[in-house]
C-alpha cells in the first residue's frame, strides 16, 4: 500500500480508503467476463472482497472506509463530500481563527448499498412442433390403426381412418354415422340415413378429358367439375407411397369374413359411394384380422387423384403440381368438399397463393369438429381408464401428434391391440387437457384442473411444449394471486421439488426466485420445510437470497455504528462550555448613566 509513503511525504494529508466496483457482488460474473476485453484476466468469485474486509483494513489504519459503484451510481458523492470534510478538519489547527471550520462534521458513516431485487425469470414457451401436417400425411402412407378400407374400381384398396375423414368431410361424417344394423343390405332406406342430393352431370362433361386446356378455361365459369365416368383405366396408376393392393373375395361379400345385415347400398344416397359394410379384414401392418368398415367407391374415382383428395382431407393442402386437377375437382364434387374444388380453381387460375387462407380455414373447422368428437366420444377406438373415470380417444390423432402414443399403439405392446388402456395416477381433467392439446395444439384450462398433475402427465408423455404452456399458466396464476394479497409461499414450496423432479425447470426457477426474494418470510413461516429441502436447493438459497447476507450484516453494523456516533456527538457537545462574548458599545455622552446598565441600543454577538 502507499499509506506509509503518503504519511512520510504528506503527513497532514487526510486519507480515505475506497472500495470500488461494488456492483460485482451481485453481478453475473460470467456475463461480466464475456464483456471484458479478450486478453483480460477473468474475475473470480473469491477475488470479490466482502465489506467487513475493507472495514478491517480501514480500522487498522485509522481512516474512514467507503464503497462506490459507477454502474449502480452509488457512493461517489459520499466519497467526495467526506473527503472535503476531512480536508477542512485537517486545517483547524493551522487556521484556528476561522470560525467556519469549527462546525465541520467528521466524515459521515455510509449506509450500506442494497442490491436491486432480481427480476423474476420469464417463462419462455418454445415453438410448437412443426410436424402438424407431416405426421398425418405419414399416417396416410403407413396406415397404423386404420379402421376404414376404401375400395376403388373393385381392385385397389386404400386404408384410412374414420376420424380424419369424418372431421374433414361432412359426407364421410354422415356415412360413418349410418346405422348399419337396422337397414336391409339391399336398400339405403332406414333411420339415420340422410336423403341424397340430386347430383346432375353437366351435359358437356365429355370434353373435359379430351380437351384439357379448354376444360381449364371452362372450369372457371362452370358450376360442376364432373368428368366422364367411363375414363380409360390406363392412366389410373398412382404413386406407390400409399398401401394399395388388389381386393380379394372378402370385399365383394362372398368371403368368410362377411357379416350379414351389417351393410348398406349407397348408390342412391351419393354418387361417390356404392356400398358400405363391416367386415373382418387383415390389418396391413400387424396382419391380424379385425373388424373394419369397407367402403366401395364409385368406379369413376381413379386411385391417383383420390390419393391427392385423401391427402387434402388429412393435411388440408393440395400440391400445385398435381397433374389430374380435373379429376381431383370431380372427386371433390362427388364428396361435396367444396374448399378443395375452390383450391383447384385457384391453381388453374394462377391464384394458388389464395389456397393458404383455405388451408387455415380448413384447420380451424377441423379443430372444432375434433373437439366435438372428443367431447362426445364419436368414432373413438380407445378408452383410457383413469383414477376417477374413463375417457374415450382416437388412436390416429394420438399417433400423429405424440411420439409416446405412437410407440405405445404402434409397437409390440399390449396397448396396440386392445381398446382399453389403464392410466394410473391420472385424473380425467388432466387427461382431457392433454387430449385437447394433442388434438388441437392449444392448452385449455378448466376449474378442476391440477396444474402440477398436468405437468407430471405431460412429462410422462414427453410433451415439452405442453409442459412449458402449463408452466406459463401456473406462474400467471401465482402472480395474480400475489397481486390479490394471497399467500402463495406454501404452494411455491410444494411446487419447487415436484417441478425439479418432473423436468419443469422454468417453473422450478420461478419458485427458486420467489423463495430467494422472500427468504426471511418463508423461513419464518415454514422452518421445517426449508430445513427439509435438498442440499442443492439450500446452497442456492444461501447464495442467491435477497437481501444478501453481507447486506444484512452491513445494515446491522451501520445501525450500531450510527448509535455510537450519535452518543459520542452528544457527549462531545455536553462537555463543551458555552462561550459567549458581549461587546458593549460606549454611549456617545460620557455623563450618560448607561455605563452602569446596558442600553437598549447596545448589541451582543454569540458565536
From TrEMBL:
One of its GO terms (molecular function) is GTPase activity. Gene3D superfamilies: P-loop containing nucleotide triphosphate hydrolases, Potassium Channel Kv1.1, Chain A. The keyword Phosphoprotein does not apply. CDD domains: BACK_RHOBTB2, BTB2_POZ_RHOBTB2. Keywords: Nucleotide-binding. Residues 146-322, 380-447 form the BTB domain. SMART domains: BTB, RHO. Residues 184-213, 586-607 are annotated as: Disordered. The keyword Nucleotide-binding applies. Residues 202-213 have a biased composition (Basic residues). PANTHER family: SPECKLE-TYPE POZ PROTEIN. This is Rho-related BTB domain-containing protein 2 isoform X2.
